């Protein structure tokens, strides 16, 4: 017995030691390998994916035809985003009728997949937005834009989320918990004033107002996504034993890590691309023989920060935005004129196609998803969204006016509040939330679609009459007839090549235009004095001469090919000239 007892004691001691050792040294779990489908399953998946691609391209082709008809028949008073959303609604109704008659079943193809949006459609849109920020005075208003987009978006998210939570606790609307309320407040705070910017450009409003709205909307999208990811991260973790203050600090730390880490990664990637284009493509830029190499490298760097950021659990959208801004400011000016034009037109075309596809599927979603509609929830959400936007714009504008030379007038504040339209990002984020039960997800999705359509159709449609009513448009635009006002973003992009974005300043011209200016302050002075000369290459007179010869050669070659075409009449040649 004593021997058995000793044996049991030894076993217990051994098990205890092994358990303690196991707790101390925990092996790293192997990364799961996704199952690879083969045989019949693989063929079925390929067939389904092929039909989805066909359906998406078909919808996109119909939308492009619609935009072409708007331009052809000069329906310039109608913003293209509004027209595409309306077409999507009509297409969704038509497909619903076909399915009701059992003539076809396209439910799977017309479903909008959030992963496709975040991986394929959103990165080109965000990068092109950042790449186009060279226009106007973005860096002169960087402080105001950052305050509106970061702190303003956080204020709006807390007001909407807090209002929904407390109204739910009072049994006024559908009850959501704190993290779900904050997630919805964050996603619905993403503004997308596409129609408003088109109206601003058509009416030639104050360029500072244009840049404040445009710049805020770009940074605001990334901030809204980071805030929503923060709320989702809190939902996935067990926060029952954590106090409210600790929850707030944990959410703040996660947000700061995502924001500044992603911004630093995007900035670093953009600067590396500037150095590579500065050193590696120096000979290419002088010889002008292989612009495809430059263009290919720039396309790689356009998507590189997104994949890297997502792979290390940062925000790919924030990274690709800052990368686009840095590449526009530095890298772009190290490229040959041919590559610069290729970059401009390619990014515009891809971003236009992605935006059009998203707006079309936004209209289709009215009929493609199961909905849960509650009138009280929708009305209170719209009220909170408008109120949160007002608390964002008006107090921050009055605060900024103490430090700004160009003041934000009350009329400009009102237009900024009114132009807070919602667009594709809130819609995609609402589908991406993993809310349980399913009726909660359906309620959030339905409410988001209604708010997006409300702001696009009603607020977007009322922007032009409001601008003319409060009289902040340019005097020349005020004299023009309504038919002469062009809201077509596509036509304007196709008619112009932004020559101010082409690098044609020699060392002497750059020094005269920037270095010796007395009005440059802060970051603008530091950038012009140190950063820009280090990361960008100034042209010599020989470079300019070679560049003009190359552009002239390409133009003559294109013209010769046109002359040898089937039409080739003298009248056509004269019209072309």
From TrEMBL:
Residues 63-467 form the Cation/H+ exchanger transmembrane domain. GO terms for molecular function: potassium:proton antiporter activity; sodium:proton antiporter activity. The chain crosses the membrane at residues 53-71, 77-95, 116-133, 145-168, 180-203, 258-279, 350-371, 377-400, 412-429, 449-470. InterPro entries: Cation/H_exchanger_CPA1, Cation/H_exchanger_TM, NaH_exchanger. One of its GO terms (cellular component) is Golgi membrane. The keyword Transmembrane helix applies. It is found in: Golgi apparatus membrane. It is a multi-pass membrane protein. Keywords: Antiport, Golgi apparatus, Ion transport, Membrane, Sodium, Sodium transport, Transmembrane, Transmembrane helix, Transport. GO terms for biological process: regulation of intracellular pH. Its main location: Golgi. Belongs to the monovalent cation:proton antiporter 1 (CPA1) transporter (TC 2.A.36) family. NCBIfam families: b_cpa1. This is Sodium/hydrogen exchanger.
């Amino acid at each position: 017995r004593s021997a058995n007892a000793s044996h049991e004691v030894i076993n217990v001691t051994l098990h205890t030691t092994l358990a303690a050792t196991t707790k101390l040294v925990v092996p790293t779990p192997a990364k799961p390998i996704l199952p690879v489908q083969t045989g019949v399953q693989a063929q079925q998946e390929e067939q389904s994916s092929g039909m989805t691609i066909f359906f998406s391209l078909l919808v996109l082709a119909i939308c492009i035809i619609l935009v072409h008809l708007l331009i052809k028949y000069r329906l310039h008073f109608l913003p293209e985003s509004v027209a595409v959303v309306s077409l999507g609604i009509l297409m969704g109704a038509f497909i619903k009728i076909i399915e009701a008659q059992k003539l076809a079943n396209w439910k799977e193809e017309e479903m909008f997949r959030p992963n496709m949006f975040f991986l394929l459609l959103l990165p080109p849109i965000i990068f092109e937005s950042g790449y186009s920020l060279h226009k106007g005075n973005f860096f002169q208003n960087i402080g105001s834009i950052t305050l509106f987009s970061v702190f303003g978006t956080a204020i709006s998210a807390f007001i909407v989320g807090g209002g929904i939570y407390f109204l739910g606790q009072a049994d006024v609307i559908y009850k959501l918990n704190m993290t779900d309320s904050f997630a919805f407040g964050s996603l619905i705070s993403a503004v997308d004033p596409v129609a408003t910017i088109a109206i601003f450009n058509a009416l030639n409003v104050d360029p500072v107002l244009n840049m404040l709205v445009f710049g805020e909307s770009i940074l605001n999208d990334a901030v809204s996504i980071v805030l929503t990811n923060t709320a989702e991260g809190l939902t996935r973790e067990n926060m029952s034993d954590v106090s409210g203050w600790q929850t707030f600090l944990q959410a703040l730390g996660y947000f700061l890590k995502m924001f500044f880490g992603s911004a630093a990664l995007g900035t670093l990637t953009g600067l590396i691309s500037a150095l590579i284009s500065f050193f590696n493509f120096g000979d290419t830029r002088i010889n002008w023989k292989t612009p495809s190499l430059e263009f290919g490298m720039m396309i790689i760097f356009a998507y590189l920060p997104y994949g890297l950021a997502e792979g290390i659990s940062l925000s790919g959208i924030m990274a690709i935005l800052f990368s686009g801004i840095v590449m526009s400011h530095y890298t772009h000016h190290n490229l040959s004129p041919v590559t610069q034009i290729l970059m401009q037109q390619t990014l515009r075309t891809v971003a236009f196609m992605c935006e059009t596809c998203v707006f079309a599927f936004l209209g289709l979603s009215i009929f493609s998803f199961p909905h849960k509609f509650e009138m009280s929830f929708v009305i209170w959400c719209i009220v909170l969204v408008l109120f949160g936007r007002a608390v964002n714009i008006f107090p921050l504008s009055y605060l900024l006016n103490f430090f700004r030379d160009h003041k934000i007038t009350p009329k400009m504040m009102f237009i900024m509040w009114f132009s807070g339209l919602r667009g594709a990002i809130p819609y995609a984020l609402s589908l991406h939330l993993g809310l349980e039960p399913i009726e909660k997800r359906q309620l959030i999705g339905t409410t988001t679609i209604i708010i997006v359509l409300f702001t696009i159709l009603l607020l977007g449609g009322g922007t032009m009459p409001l601008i003319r009513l409060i009289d902040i448009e340019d005097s020349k635009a005020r004299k023009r007839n309504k038919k002469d006002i062009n809201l077509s973003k596509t036509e304007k992009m196709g008619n112009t090549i932004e020559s101010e974005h082409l690098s044609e300043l020699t060392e002497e011209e750059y020094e005269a235009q920037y270095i010796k200016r007395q009005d440059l302050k802060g970051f603008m002075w530091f950038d012009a004095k140190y950063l820009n000369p280090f990361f960008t290459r100034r042209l010599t007179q020989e470079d300019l001469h070679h560049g003009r010869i190359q552009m002239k050669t390409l133009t003559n070659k294109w013209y010769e090919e046109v002359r040898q075409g089937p039409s080739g009449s003298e009248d056509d040649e004269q019209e072309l000239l």
